[in-house]
Specification:
Blueprint: H1 21-26, H2 36-48, H3 61-68, H4 72-84, E1 88-91, E2 97-100, H5 106-116, H6 119-143, H7 146-164, H8 171-195, H9 200-221, H10 224-242, H11 246-273
Antiparallel strand pairs: 1-2
């Protein structure tokens, strides 16, 4: 048995060393519809959403097959399709295996997806995200223990402290790391808040929607003031849940989602108007977003 074949899903953790909530959700059974296309799509969406990062090593074919509940041949075909799309690369040798391609930049994918979407579609998707997440937040405010909320907030603050202590790298690399680290921490926090609702169905749905929206939220995160505003809303939300104030918690959530959608619509409109399809990390940020409140 080669080193790669003996690799477990636990070993396939991201470079941060700790699997995130969304990272763990990638390798869940496909179910009765377990086909090559579904396995390929699950992994591709995780790559394009930044859940599986560039350079990250995938589990061996047998491990993938067991995780998804499909035949090894199905997992092998899915990996072949992903290689054909340039999303993964295969390396030979003792340290070989399948790895996420270095060119797989989730910001590029998010930019393209946003420009291909419509305003109506974006607002509708955001409304769906808001409805499910707000239901989770309201229940969490009723049912969560104060100590549980404090643990989520403490993890966010530890992440902030770690980033401040690592500012000895170049500005560009520091910015990229800050964006990725914040997005992972924010996604984890939202899923953990959903879990505090004590509703398994709502939590599963929220986790799915968080995975779908995470790439777009990551695009907003490239704008430092918007990232700071997002963090402020999340802290406000946690404080409200801790105080058992469901109304204040849902308001903080709604404000955060509205600000993100405003930014995304402004970004989309400005790039479409200029007939520019960004294929690199955006350097020119959009102007102040127009307020387009999501109906509640």
């Amino acid at each position: 048995m080669t080193q790669n074949e003996g690799m477990s899903l636990r070993d396939a953790a991201p470079r941060s060393g700790r699997p995130t909530r969304l990272h763990s959700a990638v390798f869940q059974p496909i179910g009765d519809e377990g086909r090559t296309a579904l396995v390929e799509r699950r992994i591709a969406e995780a790559i394009m959403g930044g859940v599986l990062a560039a350079g990250e090593r995938l589990p061996a074919e047998t491990e993938l097959a067991a995780a998804f509940g499909v035949a090894p041949a199905t997992a092998r075909e899915a990996l072949m399709a992903l290689r054909g799309r340039g999303l993964i690369v295969t390396r030979r040798g003792r340290s070989g295996g399948s790895f996420i391609a270095d060119s797989a930049d989730p910001i590029k994918f998010a930019s393209r997806a946003l420009l291909e979407s419509s305003r109506v579609g974006l607002r509708d998707a955001a409304q769906h995200y808001l409805a499910i997440t707000a239901a989770c937040v309201e229940l969490a405010a009723r049912r969560a223990d104060v100590s549980e909320v404090a643990m989520i907030r403490a993890r966010l603050e530890r992440g902030d402290a770690a980033l401040v202590g690592e500012n000895n790298v170049s500005h560009r690399h520091s910015h990229d790391r800050d964006v990725a680290a914040w997005r992972r921490a924010s996604d984890d926090a939202m899923i953990e808040i959903a879990a505090l609702s004590q509703s398994a169905r709502l939590t599963r749905e929220q986790m799915k929607l968080q995975g779908e929206f995470s790439p777009l939220f990551a695009l907003v995160d490239t704008h430092a003031p918007s990232r700071a505003a997002s963090r402020a809303r999340l802290i406000e939300l946690l404080s409200a849940v801790s105080a058992s104030d469901g109304d204040a918690a849902t308001r903080a959530l709604s404000d955060g989602v509205r600000l993100a959608v405003d930014w995304l619509i402004t970004y989309r409109d400005e790039h479409l108007a200029a007939s520019i399809l960004p294929i690199a990390v955006v350097t020119a940020q959009p102007t102040a977003p127009r307020s387009e409140r999501i109906p509640t």
